[in-house]
Specification:
Blueprint lengths: L2 H34 L4 E9 L3 E8 L5 E10 L2 E4 L3 H8 L7 E2 L7 E2 L4 E7 L8 H10 E9 L6 E3 L5
Antiparallel strand pairs: 1-2, 2-7, 3-4, 3-6, 3-8, 5-7, 8-9
Length: 162
């Protein structure tokens, strides 16, 4: 084996190693970039917060904006549709008091740090509104499907059990 063969072999090995290192670094950078703009929606039950406000709240605690693709509502385990005004109207027709609501449908966005009440009462009183806390804490379930503005992720947010 002469010196030219050894030099050529070493140069080829160095080039292959460099290509491998560049590929690994590019993949790591892609993962980092994805996570640096990843939204994370959380749904939580809130009781007597901000001067008596009580209800279901959705927050974007992630690092990027979230785009809602779909919402699904169940009342007492029975699917009733998406979280929009017609569904809310039909569900709340026989409730003792009509709470405020924020509709979710495909295309609604949640910027980083955004917080909205999906349904809430501003003047919650334990004696008069026990039915409402029972509703948001156990009977009403809203699932939100969303994705990042930058990536198609098919993520989901559901309220935690109380």
């Amino acid at each position: 084996m002469d010196s030219n063969t050894i030099i050529t072999t070493c140069a080829t090995a160095a080039a292959v190693g460099s290509l491998w290192a560049s590929t690994v670094q590019a993949r790591a950078l892609k993962v980092h970039n994805r996570t640096s703009v990843m939204p994370h929606l959380q749904i939580r039950q809130v009781k007597n917060y901000e001067n008596g406000r009580t209800g279901l709240q959705v927050l974007n605690v992630g690092l990027g904006p979230a785009l809602v693709t779909r919402s699904t509502v169940e009342l007492d385990g029975v699917p009733v549709g998406q979280w929009d005004w017609p569904t809310f109207e039909s569900m709340s027709a026989d409730w003792p008091q009509r709470p405020s609501m924020y509709a979710l449908f495909g295309g609604v966005s949640f910027p980083m740090g955004d917080c909205q009440y999906l349904v809430h009462l501003d003047d919650y009183d334990e004696a008069r509104h026990a039915w409402f806390w029972e509703l948001v804490a156990g009977r009403l379930s809203i699932e939100i499907e969303y994705e990042s503005f930058y990536w198609g992720d098919n993520l989901r947010a559901v309220p935690p059990p109380l």
